[in-house]
Amino acid sequence: MAVKISRIFHAGYVFESRGVRIAFDPIFENPFSRNCFSFPEIEFDLAAVRQLRFDAVFISHFHDDHCSFDSLKLLDRATPIYMFCVHQEMFSWIRELGFVNVHPVVLNSSVSIGDFEVISRPALDVDVDSLFQIRVQGLNILNVVDSWIDEDTFANLAKQGPWDLVMWPFQMMRELEVLEPYKAAPSDRKLPEEWLSQLKVLNPKNIIPSSCQFRMEDWSWYNHAFFPISYADFHSQVKSVLPTVNIINLTPASGILLGKDKVQSCESLPWIKVIGNPESDYQYVPDLKPPSTASIASHFTKLSDSQMKQVNDYCDKGILEKFLEIGPSADTFFNKRRIWKLSVFSKEGLETVRCYELNDDQMKPVPASGVNPDWCTEVTAAKLHSALNTGESLSSLYIRVVKDSDVDAVEDPLIRCLFSAEFGSYQKAQLARIKREEVL
Questions:
Q1: Does pLDDT of 302 surpass 90?
Q2: How far, in Å, CA of 117 to CA of 133, rounded?
Q3: For residue 357, pLDDT beyond 70
Q4: Looking at residue 290, what DSSP letter applies?
Q5: Residues 315, 316, 318, 322, Cα dihedral to 10°
Q6: pLDDT of residue 421
Q7: How far is residue 224's CA from residue 392's CA, in Å, rounded to a whole number?
Q8: Strand 81-83 relative to strand 102-104, pairing
Q9: How far is CA 83 from CA 15, 57, 66, 74, 263, in A?
Q10: Distance CA 155, CA 274 (A)
Q11: In degrees rounded to 5, what are phi and psi of residue 71?
Q12: Structure pTM?
């Protein structure tokens, strides 16, 4: 006997054993998270997806590239959902979506589904992520999802071997570097030494370079700046510490039959059509010059007058209230008087400039003329409107920080106001829209 493991894409997988089928972090959208496209390109047969029946779905954490209600709504509402999330309202929202069998995952506890025993393990960020250990038919599999592993968990995992398969995140995404491209140093295109050391200790028979299997819009400069590691890089660097390991590039829709002593390819998932070249690889360009925010704005939809009014109202009043609500920055740079310049670009590339005086948890507008700002932020009007209404991830916002200081970019006032203390904005917006559509 063998276990069938099929890749949906990114961190999504389907496991099958003796008639039992479970899914991990399933996403049936392309793009997902606003601007993340499968790499290579794929299409879903959504009618066929609606006919799928899973014996259970496991979700590692609440990030929208792992938990999307637009994907979950396609599944039978009797499907058991097991999810790790410290925010209890997430489980209420999934129940509001119509699922009747929803279970919070307890770290280091196991769930048995047919042949499968699924054990949720703590990740480094224990309040956000989890990883999965899967035991089935005598096989021992580790799905790291896209987490980092803390020392205690790793020490435990090292004792759990031997490992037949490890699904390991292969990409080092430059999420902060693209926020401040004029300051960021080029990537050395190397996997973290910690990853290589951990893989060497785990010493699995097989490795799937996992998660991060996406790219941005075709026009996006992120495609050559955000993803520094290629599959070829992963192969060569992992082979340098594990020369005998079998590395399996599992492309979207493709599957393997995993046995104790043999791995072989099997039929692809019939509800996914691969359009792009399965052999596509990432190409990082270290000296790439980023386009202006004005030119980026041209790729987005023109806002209506009412939508533009909402953006202006937020910049004139809403952001002042939010800044006071979230409290002082964790960085002392912002705990004394600073002048902040915020530039918002329309689709036509027109720049609207506002300046604010920041002091601890206070923000007030000041005239934009004749000031020498201490901090500058650029964003497009369309993305700011989307962030206010439907949720945006930081990597899809195309926000840019222009500065010379050593201050952490995530302490940027706009980033803090949009993302601080806001849990599940993406899923909440999805749920509200889905409910409106059901009424119609």
A1: yes
A2: 8
A3: yes
A4: P
A5: 80
A6: 63
A7: 21
A8: parallel
A9: 17, 8, 10, 17, 29
A10: 39
A11: -85, -45
A12: 0.95
Mean pLDDT for the chain overall:
95
Instruction: Map out the domains of the chain with their CATH numbers.
Output: 3-274 (3.60.15.10), 293-439 (3.30.1050)
Our measurement of the distance from residue 67's CA atom to the centroid of its chain's CA atoms, rounded to an integer in Å, reads 10
CA torsion sign for 361, 367, 371, 376 is positive
Task: Tell me if 122 sits within 8 A of 105, measured CB to CB.
Answer: no
Between the CA of residue 265 and those of 213, 363, 426, what are the distances in Å?
Answer: 19, 59, 36
Write out pLDDT tens, residues 37-89.
Answer: 999 999 999 999 999 999 999 999 999 999 999 999 999 999 999 999 999 99
pLDDT in tens, 306-345: 999 999 999 999 999 999 999 999 988 988 899 999 999 9
Q: What pLDDT, on the 0 to 100 scale, is given for residue 71?
A: 98
In 3-state terms, what secondary structure has residue 123?
coil
The string of DSSP codes covering 163-221 is -SEEEEE-----TTGGGSTTTPPPP-----HHHHHHHHHH--SEEEEES--EE--TT-G
- Around 40, how many Cα atoms within 13 Å sit in the side-chain half-sphere? 16
Residue type, 138: G
Q: Output the furthest CA–CA distance in the chain (Å, rounded).
A: 75
Cβ contact 24:13 at 8 Å: yes
d(CA 439, CA 359): 46
Which pLDDT does position 439 carry in this prediction? 77
**Strands, DSSP E only, in 187-329?**
206-210, 214-215, 246-247, 255-258, 263-266, 272-274
Encoded tokens for 25: 């972090």
Backbone angles phi, psi at 253, to 5 degrees: 80, -20
Q: How confident is the model at residue 440 (pLDDT cuts 50, 70, 90)?
A: low
* Tokens 């960085």 belong to residue: 331
Q: Report the distance separating Cα 12 and Cα 210, nearest Å.
A: 9
